[in-house]
Amino acid sequence: PHHQDHMSIAECFDILATVGNYSNARMTMPNLQLEFKYNSGCMIAFSGKIVRHGVYDVEGDRIAWAWYMRDAVHIYAGVPSCGW
């Protein structure tokens, strides 16, 4: 289902990767009117907090691996926020 990642930071990109034995996956971003092929090995970066996104059901096995940017990561690493 289409969704937004409300725990992410709007000013930062989240990174999504997908792997598996499947076919015909499509990543859609309806509020931007975009649709991408989302084949195995694909990586995509965008602000998951701002951009509504989702992947249609696929035939086969698919794993999505997500890296989310969070304020807690900046605090833990001692990296100041960008302040945008």
Protein model, in words:
- With 84 residues, this protein is mainly β.
- It has one domain (14-77).
- It has one helix at residues 71-77; strands at residues 14-23, 26-29, 34-37, 43-46, 54-55, 59-67.
- The strands form 2 sheets. The chain has a 3-stranded antiparallel sheet with strand order 4-1-6, with no helix packed on it.
- The mean pLDDT is 91.
Features:
84 residues; mainly beta; three-stranded antiparallel sheet; elongated
Structural class by helix and strand composition: mainly beta
- Give Rg in angstroms: 14 Å
Give the N-terminus to C-terminus distance in angstroms: 30 Å
Biggest sheet descriptor = 3 strands, antiparallel
Shape: elongated
- Per DSSP E runs of 2 or more residues, the count of β-strands stands at 6
Indicate the percent of residues in helices. Answer: under 10%
Strand order in the sheet with the most strands: 4-1-6
Q: What fraction of residues sit in β-strands?
A: 35-45%
SS element count, helices: 1
User: H/E series, N to C?
Assistant: EEEEEEH
Q: Which residue ranges are poorly predicted, with pLDDT under 50 across at least 5 consecutive positions?
A: none
Write down the overall mean pLDDT.
91
As for the number of domains, it is 1
